[in-house]
Fold:
Amino acid sequence: MKAKVCIISGTPGTGKTFLTKLISRKINTFCVFLNELIINEKHTLNYDNARETWVVNEKTLIPRLKEIIKLEKRSKNYELIIIEGHLSDLVPNKLIDYGIVLRCHPNVLKSRLEKRNYKERKIKENVQAEILGDCVSFLLEKKIIKTVMEIDTTNENFEEIAEDMVSIIKNDKGFEKYALGKIDWLEELFTNNHLDEFFE
Structure:
């Protein structure tokens, strides 16, 4: 049986890497951590000092991702292939079985990014992206045939989430619990008059 392919996206600080590692302990998984792959194999164009991030060379990264997925599917050593990273939406549609986007309440996300010693501008940029649901929008644009799930990691119940994901992937059902549209930070912050706190 060929391995299923799952991409895990989300704003930095939502718990992508941690969840990926938890899932890999519960099901035979080949993990691709995009940030590591991009840096180690030099799929970059230049470093953006203002945004404190590498500009990715999509022309070399996408063929490499195709190559990795094809190779690991052919090997039949794994039940699951996870591509983890906020750029995982670069994986071609036809290669994706499941899309997962992690979400986190802006207040909690801000605290998590501060603990990472992100600069103020980078924190603001990422929190704004989370409020606007950018990662969800990117996955929706892909129109993945099977499913896209949206998961709130604010309360850090990662063990339960990992168990659910393994069950969903193995049984190909249970998506409803994590259906899109249940998370709307923009409306919540607007209703509670806290939007200006993040969009000055």
Notes: Residues 36 and 125 are 22 Å apart (CA to CA). Residues 4-197 form a domain with the Rossmann fold fold (CATH 3.40.50.300). Strands lie at 4-10, 29-33, 44-48, 53-56, 80-84, 98-103, 147-152.
